[in-house]
Amino acid sequence: MAKFCKGEGHDYECTFIMKDKKHEKVLVNECVIYVKKYFALHDSTVVAINELIQIILDRNMTPGEGLDEWNDLNMLINNELEREFIKTFELLKSTLTEMKECIEKMKRVKKIIEKRQIESTTRSVTTTMLHSLNVFFNNTLPYFKRDYMLKEKLHQTLIHVDGACENEINRLQLMWKETPFLHLIFQKFDVNKFIVDCKQFLGTS
User: Which residues make Cβ contacts (< 8 Å) with residue 65, sequence separation at least 6?
Assistant: First the structure.
């Protein structure tokens, strides 16, 4: 960095480079925030969807039939399960909204990065970092979108599932188990290394 800033004639260039890197650090920081947030939201959806599937299964398990006390107990249990289902269903809906917003923010940052790459005339570590970010999002955004769409489909399906139909439950569980998108992102594109590289860049002067 110092070699660009020596001499009075380089004052403007020095100021430009420093401002440029500061702006790039903001972009890198946003990328880290959005990627980490999406994975955290994913963890929340896993818990919620598993709970909803379990509630659907529990609603069709009656403690007994024929006796008034068993029928009353069954009604109380079903009412409680219904309340818990609605609560978890709405929580999942809210989480999915956050996930969608997170993807939109990643797309916005990617567009800014692409624009800055086109405008940039400097060959330095900053442009290398922007290039890495652009490659990462080019590779991963399609998977983020597919992951979100699958979760959204599951959310819409859960409300209509007939818990008494074993085939429907099996189909739902199979659909939920076959969710490789985030696993592909995490393993194939080495998210941990990506975040470490970003944090190292943020720590540079």
Answer: 71, 74
Query: Distance between CA atoms of 203 and 31, rounded to whole angstroms?
Result: 15
Domain range holding 67?
A: 21-202
d(CA 167, CA 184): 28
0.70 cut: is pTM over it?
yes
Structure tokens at 32: 């880290």
The sign one gets for the Cα dihedral 168, 58, 45, 180 is: negative
The alpha carbon of 138 is separated from its chain's Cα centroid by a whole number of angstroms, namely: 16
For residue 188 the two structure tokens come to 């194939």
> What is the Cα–Cα distance from 97 to 100, expressed in whole angstroms?
5
CA 32 from chain centre, in angstroms, equals 12
Domain count, the chain: 1
| Residue for token pair 């890197």 | 21
Locus of tokens 């946003």: 30
Residue 70 covered by a domain: yes
Question: For residue range 157-183, what is the model confidence (pLDDT) as tens digits?
Answer: 888 887 777 788 778 777 777 666 777
Q: Which residue has the tokens 């859960």?
A: 158
Classify residue 11: in a domain, yes or no: no
